[in-house]
Amino acid sequence: MINAKMLDDLAKTLAGALPPGLREMQQEVEKNFRAVLQGFFSRMDLVTREEFDVQTEVLIRTRTLVEDLEKQVAALEDKVLGAGKKAKATPRAPKGDDTAQ
Questions:
Q1: What residues contact 7, with CB distance under 8 A and at least 6 apart?
Q2: Dihedral sign, CA of 21, 27, 32, 36?
Q3: Which member of 12, 20, 51, 61 lies 3.0 to 4.6 Å from 47 by CB, making a disulfide possible if both were Cys?
Q4: Where along the chain do its domains lie?
């Protein structure tokens, strides 16, 4: 969620924008603005910067792991397909061929 300092600054800014007659009740108005803003931001289901940064790091590690696994799979596929091609390319003598005496 949004941090407390930012919420206080926003409430003070809004209270400062009020007409001079209402500024006498500035503390009460700031308190009400703060409560309204806090409720609004909590309903928005926002995450903290820390939570965002943690998830970014998890995503980076996961992406790196997936790339490494893709390379391993490609190498194994090349190995398997390469072995299959070699087996097909090597001619075998027919069974029962006795010409090699």
A1: 34, 37, 38, 41
A2: positive
A3: 51
A4: 1-46, 48-88
